[in-house]
Amino acid sequence: MIARWKKALAAVTACVLSFGMLAACGSGTAGAGANGGEVERMTLVVWASQEDQVDSDSWLQTMESEFEKRHPEYDITWKNQAVASADAATIAKQDPTVAADVYTFASDQLGTLIGAGAVGQVSDPTMKQLKKQTAGNETMLNTVTAPDGNVYGVPLAGNTWFMYYRKSKFTEQDLTSLDAMLAKGKVSFPLTNSWYLPAFYIGAGGTLFGEDGTDAESGVQFGGEIGAAVTNYLVDLRNNKNFVNDKNGSGLAGLKSGKVDVVFTGNWDAATVRENLGDDWGVAKLPSFNLNGKQVQMRAFAGSTVYAWNPYTKHPKAADQFSAFLSSTYSQKRHYEMRSVIPSDVELASESDIKKDAVAQAQMDTIADTSVVQPSIAPMSNFWGPCENFGNSIYNKEVTHDNAAKLTEQWMKSYENTL
Question: What biological process terms from GO does the record include (predicted)?
Fold first, then answer.
C-alpha cells in the first residue's frame, strides 16, 4: 500500500476560520532542535469529544504530551476543539480545507467523508499497527475499510450491542440459546428497531451490501427460502408468551420491576442494568436461535469510533502519525483507565483490569465473534425505514405464517428503487 501522505498535496490553501471558529490546516516552519537536528514546527488542529479534553490532565492533552516525547522531530502547537465523533462528517464535508488536521468520527460516516475527500488513507506504518490491533477481528478492520479496498483511520473503540440477564434464572448453557432462555424467563428484544432486527437475517446468512458491507449493487439479501424461515421464526417469537418487545426503555424498566429477565443493549446501559439487578446481573455475547432444527448465531451490527487525518493538512506525515497514535494500544489502554471507554484493540482483551470487566469482555467478544460490520456506504441511509416498518408489521401481527414468505419478498422489493 502506498502511503497516502506521500501523495499529499504539495500546497494547501491558507487556513481560514469557519463553522463557529473551527480552524484547520495547521501551519508550520522548520528550525534547529536542541540536539542540533532539524525540527519541524507546526500547529495541529484536533477535533475530539468534550469529555476527552476537559482540562490539561484529560486524555487528549495527556496523549498529546506523550506524542511529543515520542517525536522530538516535531515542535507542535496544539489547537483542540470540541467536535463529537457523531458531528465530524457533517462539518468536514462542507469544506474539508478548513476541517481539523486530525479528528474523530463514527465509522458509519466513512462513506460521507470519502465522498467529500475529507479523510486520508492510512500510511504503511499505520496499516501495520492496525493489522496487529485487529488480528482475528475482521469486523473491526472492516469498519474503516472503504469500497475501494483502502483503509481510512484507526478504530479507537467499538460499538455494538449484546445481552444482559438475570443470573438466577439461567444456567451457562441456557445463555447460548435464545430459545432456552425463552423457555425459562421473560426475554425483551427490540423487534421493531432496525438496528437490532437484522441480527436474525444476517445470522442465517443474509447479506447487506455484500459480505463486507461495501457492495452497493448487492443490495439487501434477506429474502428467499431462508429469509422466509427467519420471518416465520420471528412470528413465533412475537407470539411467545415470554417475549416482550423492548421499546422506549421498557426492557430496562422490566429488569427493575422483575417482569423481564433478559435485555439486548450496549455498554451505555451497563450502569442501569447493575442498578436494576444488583448482584444478580450478568452479561454475555449474543446467543444462537433454532431455525428449522439448526442452531443459527445471531449477529449484531458493529461499528467503531475512529481517529483519522485530513488530506488537506499541511503536515500529512505528522497528522497520520498522531491519528494512529490516538488509537494505538497505549492510547486505548489509557483511555480505558481514564474514562472507562472499552477498547477495540484485541491485544488489550487479556489485560488484567479489562479481563475482569465483564461488560468489556462481552462487547469485545461480540464484535470479534458474533457481529458484522455496519455498512457505511451512502445507500445504507435508505435501509432503516423499511426495516423498521417490517419489524412493526411482525409485532402488530400483520405478518403471519400464511403470508411470511410473500411479505418478506415485498420487503426486499421495497429496496429496489431506493438503494
Answer: maltodextrin transmembrane transport; maltose transport
